[in-house]
Design brief:
alpha+beta; about 35% helix; elongated
Amino acid sequence: MLDGRLSEALADQWDYLADRSLDLNLQDRSAIYGGFHIYVRKG
């Protein structure tokens, strides 16, 4: 989701947890936000 929205230097500081995001989205029973994406700061 952050691709193309942040500078490369800033985006390189984060890892996207695609599998974990998908797993938790499938478990989300409220669906208020329509989904979410999990990023973890490197280092």
